[in-house]
Amino acid sequence: MEFITKFAEGFMKLFQTGAETFISWMTGIVPVVLILMVFMNTIIAFLGEKRVTKIAQISAKNPFTRYLILPFLAAFMLGNPMSFTLGRFLPEYYKPSYFASLAQFCHTSNGIFPHINPGELFVWLGIAQGIDQLGLNSMELAVRYLLVGLVMNFVSGWVTDFTTAFVCKQQGVQLSKTVKIVE
Known about the structure:
The protein is mainly alpha-helical. 73% of the residues lie in helices and 0% in strands.
């Protein structure tokens, strides 16, 4: 009987812990993401969806702007995870590549721009502490990490373009490389 009671208590503790975690999200990250979404949608409303879509069209025209400039601006201005929403304005064909590039950028920029991905700041701080203990400059590492990250983000985006093309051909799917302007 005692075993059943302990099992039931442990089982309920699992759900209580889940509920506590859920409430911490509701008072932590969820309001921040919600306010960022309102802010982004307000900017889009002021600029006009037509103009924002036009910017996305221009960005989508070459890999440099698509996988270096747009992900950098999105991550710097909106942070992780909100920066991914800017990809909604890109043509369907380029969305997987944008995601691949941006997902890496949100990690490789933490040393210089910790606001982009504060949830993983502890990783960078752990590395920086080790570098500092060796008597080395952690900012030099942060700059190198950012620069290598930018190159690798670009490569990741472009390679994903080829992967998308291969999968589309294999599956017989036709994805648009242009965005329809909203009237």
